Amino acid sequence: MKQFGYARAESVEQALNTLTSTSSARYLGGGTNLIDLMKLGVLSPDLLVDVRALPLDQITEQPDGSVRIGAAVTNSDLAVDPLIRQRFPAVSQAVLAGASGQLRNVATVGGNLMQQTRCSYFMDVSKPCNRRAPGTGCPARTGEHHNHAILGASEHCIATSPSDLAVPLAAFDAQLVLHGSDGESTVPISEFYRLPGDQPDQLTTVADGTLVVGVLLPASDLAGRSRYRKVRERASYAFAIGSVAAAISVTDGVIGDARLAWGAVAAVPWRARLAERALIGQPASTASFRAAAQAELAHAEPLTGNSYKVELLSNLTVEVLTELVEASA
User: Minimal CA–CA distance to 305: which of 142, 153, 195, 152?
Assistant: First the structure.
């Protein structure tokens, strides 16, 4: 592991100035992903700027009814917060579905949203990988890709986002609060992450050095009746092979509104907008749920080893929406 410097930031401005003054520096939150990547040699920063002491560890309701989650809030604290559990249960469920209790006690919201893919080629510096070393190729396309993307991928990268938390945040139109050289700003989560295209090494759309300082979840009656479901290859401490965050409202048997996002299908948390539109105005039935999922999945481009995800996401979507309707009956 390469020798590196360490600086503890006492303010957001100090964190920004310290990071930008060094050619190779990274923000350090819980470090549960970053330190692993440094041990593997995937990342080798000269300096870590510790942001855990910044006053970003609160969850507060805003005057407009939205909820602001500080970037330094631990995953454990987020999962058990009464406001989150009542207003956004899918968020709490997603966090509890991720990692282990020990890791959740350390990992932060900001770090969760900035974590890197767990593609085995990205994690192995002896292998080519366009995301880690642009221009070297994507061996996953012809190699091991059973948990890779079926939507939004490119010939340059088929890796998936590993974040459980990002999926319900995408479903409920969360905004990320950022602090950069021009001060504080917000960006919808749908515009924060970027699909790989021909630049798979670019994880987000924001400038280098920008610090995620929080998340804003807009007020939503619909989100209060939401659910997150994750499918994985073992019962605990495993990344998703498919996940669904959903909420639905039904009046007299007809769907009035719906929110739907999928995880482990793309390099970004995938907001299933085609499926949402297909649901509205339709009867709340298994046939409607499956038709909506298939409308979204019609654009999937699976490879041989991950084609199972098409049926998995369809079945999982039907199951979660059915449970929501039955719970509200």
Answer: 142
